[in-house]
Amino acid sequence: MSNTLLQLDQLSKSFGNLKAVDQLSITLEKGNVYGLLGPNGSGKSTTLGMILNVINPTSGSFSWCQGDLTTHGALKKIGAIIERPNFYPYMSALQNLRLICKIKQCSYETIQEKLILVGLWERRHSKFRTFSLGMKQRLAIAAALVNNPDLLILDEPTNGLDPEGIHQIRKLIRTIAELGTTILLASHLLDEVEKVCNHVIVLKEGVKFYEGPVDEISQSFGFFELKTKDQKALSQFAKTLPEVKEVKLENNHLKVLLKAELSEDVLSKKLAEAQIYTTHFVKKRPSLEDQFLTLIQS
Amino acid sequence: MRLLSIELYKLWHNRISKILIFGYFILIFSIAILSTIKVEIGPINFHLADQGIFNFPYIWHFNTFMIGLLKIFFAIIIVAMIGNEYSYKTLKQNLIDGLSKGEFLRSKVYAILAFVGISTLLVFIISLILGGIYSDYNELQIVFSELEYLFAYAVKLFGFFSFCLFLGLLIKRSAFALGFLALWQVIEGIFYGLMKWKLSDLIPFLSAEQVFQFFPLNALGNLIKEPFSRLSAVQNIVDQIGEGFSKDYGISILNIGIVLVWSALFLWWSYLLLKKRDL
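Predict the joint structure of the above. Result:
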């Protein structure tokens, strides 16, 4: 089998006049952890809805495993969590998971392992409706993992959880990612994506805005934050360096933006040669959030 | 079988539907209670079971009609099993878990078929027993004549439940779907009234009854006609008054056909609804 798990080809969805998703083409390869980013209403959930067989595309198509599997055949082999966990409230955790096993045609054997993984084994006989939101969300993760999926699709998995719940879910996602499961994580929480994903797809108003590895999201070489007694001299010197794009004064620090690679040791050596001694010397890369905002606003 | 077991699993773990299902099957047996009705007021000694209602082959007609009235209990279960999938959003989850829309619908239809089968079997058994006890005729040939009522009973239930399934999917809320079912009954009545009033003026060769028999609920009702006026006791009285009438109590193939076509349409429309809707 090839490495392509899922391929979207010019997928579009309109709700009346509104184009929720516009000619989106994406390819998901095995072994990557993808982040699907975008502000609220950018079409993330609609995209996931379409590949999960609950929303009919207006035009375009998608195929699982290069067309080797039907959509519902593929869905049996993956795990997916959409915004809110949906289970039968009158059934216990265990009964709900057994029903899912019946649908996915997998054995009951993994149920115990997954319930232990999400910390719900003790509560397995409690009815779903007695669960807190965090427990429901964790049960949803157990349900998504019960067939040992090749691909895990998560849509805002930490939405509405308290800090402890968020932390637990993130830890779980990272554990799962380390096991080599391909993950597609839709979120508007950027640090979440930054922490677990190696690939990002950015949507804006239903259009694909950017796709690529997390660290290449913008052609940024980072910046230095510098401080010295004679800020003017430092500023003049920095402007003479070929790697420097711009020098700004920000919060008493000089912010030196780069347009080419310049490492810490090279710069400190050059400064020493110019007899400039800094009291503050840090190299920083912009956070995904900074980069995302620049990207969306540009 | 997998699809049937999925649906039964969902019903089995829901206490309310479990109670309703058992209640329905127990109610079927309650027809036996009719046999114990005895009225003794002075000189009048009336024992319902002796009036011939449990005579073969009339019992097939009587029991299928009477027990057929209980189908509304089961309609509640069917409408609820669709309504719940919408209100719990588990339909969405089922699809995401890898059930196709066709499979989802089929699991419901198989459950309906299973219950229709069980219900028909129960009617068969209870009629055999009651008839065995009270019938004046016990020759095998007579006992097993007019079994087409049993077939009509199964078709009637299936047609009615298909209609409920469609309404459940269309309206998504159990209570409203049941309300709509009642409303539909009224709408058919109004249409009948209108046609009776005007139709023969507009189209001379068409009578209201001819059109009305194609309406879904009326077609269901026509499958098994009311059995009371067929009772010999009643007929005797009518004959004495001199208002002799003859009515065809048989099962018409046209009626069976109409109901089967409606059932197929309801199931097909249900599928189209599922297919077209975004969740």
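The mean pLDDT of chain A is 86.
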